[in-house]
């Protein structure tokens, strides 16, 4: 590992939306080490478009080295933490002055960018070769995937099986109702309050029994259920008491882990009472970058008063519905159609996110 004399050591755990932005933003201010089990940062909200159009992923799957040109990268999982060190699964012991935990959700994706791009190509082949497709889960991921397929491949039959009483249960019922009508207008079949036994699923099965005894016929399926939080590894560490009952890290308003002065936590892993979304994770990252700059420049104690605080976001979300439309949940309003679609659904904020990471919005160097 490279040493940069005199600079404070900042270790960032997790190269997702929040952690990558912190690492990129502090790389010339501190000696930064990013620890992530994969070699790339992925703009998650582009992943469903990438399944219907695999070349879309060329811009949204970004090698860490492309934006982190002045930092150390360790491709491994963090498995233990002390007051001053992190231990990784591959045996590295990394000392820190400041630690930022951003291990959001654990995902089982390839280590290498090329292999991740190939996964999208495989998903695309699977969609193209099927006449009927079952989507398990009617949250934002399942709804966005169903809409992408319905818009790009209108002749394919799409069936969503969702165990809850309505789609998109993270936003209000009006948004869910409007989305259901939109999907049905595209001939998507939605089966609510039914589930599929995941233990009995096999690829190529073609006929699936739902929890209430109905059968769904489909040439293939996609599982769009939630991913586990990336905090299980902390349960056996000195930070086990910093977790709430759901496994989220308890943070104060400056986004430090409660009661700790040199460990911050940001993104989906935190107990901040708001919707867990990428744009909130980016805001957390910006607050922590400012606070770490204040601390590093001014010393930990004297800088307390100049540190920024974070206010939880209002309930606000945009779920894209194919290439032109979307449904938006705003604090006092729900809108569906081209207006919210204009904001999100064309480029899915990929160009904007790339710029935020210091990269050209369109040009990708292999
Ligand atoms: C399909 C999909 C679509 C979405 N669409 C939107 C959207 O349209 N708008 C929006 O605002 N949000 C959206 N989200 C939510 C958004 O992606 C998350 O809120 C955001 O990714 C949270 O960022 P994070 O950095 O906290 O966690 P993540 O992005 O989950 O990153 C966590 C990182 O930590 C790594 N990690 C895990 N465990 C360890 C460990 N032990 N050691 C080291 N590294 C570890 C993971 O590999 C990963 O790189 C979507 C999510 C998904 C899955």
From TrEMBL:
One of its GO terms (cellular component) is cytoplasm. SUPFAM superfamilies: FAD/NAD(P)-binding domain (SSF51905). Belongs to the FAD-dependent oxidoreductase family. The keyword Disulfide bond does not apply. The keyword Manganese does not apply. GO terms for molecular function: electron-transferring-flavoprotein dehydrogenase activity; flavin adenine dinucleotide binding. This is FAD/NAD(P)-binding domain-containing protein. Putative FAD-dependent oxidoreductase. It comes from Psophocarpus tetragonolobus. Residues 8-277 form the FAD/NAD(P)-binding domain. It holds the Pfam family Pyr_redox_2. Keywords: FAD, Flavoprotein, Oxidoreductase.
């Amino acid at each position: 590992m490279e040493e940069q004399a005199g600079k404070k050591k900042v270790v960032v755990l997790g190269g997702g939306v929040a952690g990558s932005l912190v690492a990129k933003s502090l790389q010339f201010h501190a000696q930064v080490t990013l620890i992530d089990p994969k070699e790339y940062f992925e703009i998650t909200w582009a992943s469903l478009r990438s399944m219907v159009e695999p070349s879309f992923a060329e811009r949204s799957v970004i090698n860490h080295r492309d934006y982190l040109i002045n930092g150390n990268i360790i491709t491994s999982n963090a498995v233990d933490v002390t007051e001053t060190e992190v231990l990784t699964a591959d045996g590295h012991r990394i000392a820190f002055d400041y630690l930022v935990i951003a291990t959001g959700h654990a995902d089982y994706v390839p280590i290498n960018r090329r292999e991740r791009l190939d996964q999208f190509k495989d998903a695309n082949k699977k969609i193209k070769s099927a006449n009927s497709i079952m989507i398990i889960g009617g949250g934002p991921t399942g709804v966005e995937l169903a809409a992408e397929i319905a818009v790009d491949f209108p002749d394919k039959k799409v069936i969503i099986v969702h165990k809850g009483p309505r789609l998109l249960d993270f936003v209000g019922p009006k948004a869910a109702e409007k989305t259901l009508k939109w999907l049905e207008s595209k001939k998507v079949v939605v089966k609510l309050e039914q589930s599929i036994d995941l233990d009995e699923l096999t690829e190529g099965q073609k006929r699936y029994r739902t929890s209430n005894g109905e059968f769904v016929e489909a040439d293939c399926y996609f599982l769009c259920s939630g991913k586990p939080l990336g905090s299980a590894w902390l349960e056996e560490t000195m930070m086990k008491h910093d977790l709430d009952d759901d496994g989220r890290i308890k943070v104060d308003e400056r986004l430090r882990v409660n009661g700790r002065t040199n460990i911050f936590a940001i993104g989906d892993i935190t107990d901040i009472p708001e919707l867990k979304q990428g744009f909130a994770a980016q805001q957390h990252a910006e607050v922590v970058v400012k606070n770490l700059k204040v601390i590093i420049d001014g010393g930990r104690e004297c800088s307390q008063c100049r540190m920024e605080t974070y206010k939880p976001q209002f309930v606000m979300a945009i779920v894209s519905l194919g290439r032109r439309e979307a449904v938006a949940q705003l604090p006092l309003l729900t809108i569906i159609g081209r207006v919210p679609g204009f904001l999100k659904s064309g480029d899915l904020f990929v160009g904007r996110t790339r710029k935020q990471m210091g990269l050209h919005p369109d040009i990708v160097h292999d």
